[in-house]
Amino acid sequence: MKQEIIRKKGEILSALAHPLRLRILDKLREGPCCVCKIIPYVGGEQSNVSHHLAILRRAHIVQSEKRGIEVWYRVTDQRVYGIIDQLENLVLRDLRESTTLLAAIEEKEDER
Amino acid sequence: MKQEIIRKKGEILSALAHPLRLRILDKLREGPCCVCKIIPYVGGEQSNVSHHLAILRRAHIVQSEKRGIEVWYRVTDQRVYGIIDQLENLVLRDLRESTTLLAAIEEKEDER
DNA sequence: TTCATATATGATTATATGTAGATATTGTCA
DNA sequence: TGACAATATCTACATATAATCATATATGAA
Predict the structure, then answer these.
(1) By Cβ atoms counted within 10 A, which residue in A24, A71, B49, B103 is the most buried?
(2) Does A8 share its domain with A34?
């Protein structure tokens, strides 16, 4: 059902929509990885990182697997990086746009 | 700077991460459109839709323009639909995955 | 000018999310 | 078995977000 898909899209977007979680995915781009490597990479409290990993897990964006005493995470579907990369294009365009706008304003200021 | 881009990515994702806002973008896929058409399409209170439009505007995902008494909205960068469409692939995969998992469980139940 | 229409904004309340600290769980090794 | 390491979970608090209602603003028409 259409509405159901839209709801799910919203859930995945919410799960992605946090700098810390985006950094976790950045780390996992290289391949599966132990939490003990993720924590220093993204920074912050262990419990907080674990919390954010749980959010990504619940959204099925990542999966975890116990290896001895460690827990390894991996991305469920690599296509998530397609989304993140396209997003980067939007962000860059927006940044460019605002800087050219800024430049135009400054030019006007100079004209006075 | 890298961190700044990640922060902005998070902002755009947050702005997208709501069913009502996704439906607004669905409507705008056809082309620029008046708020008076968006409201019945997405459903809900006028003020609520207006709030959500403001969120999309602040994220620069859409732009508005006054035409007489009406306000028309359009998508700033069509590439946002690339993101939404890729998202759909993830969602569909996830739905398929959960239904096959469900089927497998039911099969096991039957075996008993 | 006054009125009606379209839309935005502000205030309030309920709910969700993020963070940190404390504690629980699980696996390993001596 | 007991101690330790890695990770998850729980709790409490602060902050952000969503929905609704009331109100403000802008435009065109009478």
Answers:
(1) A24
(2) yes
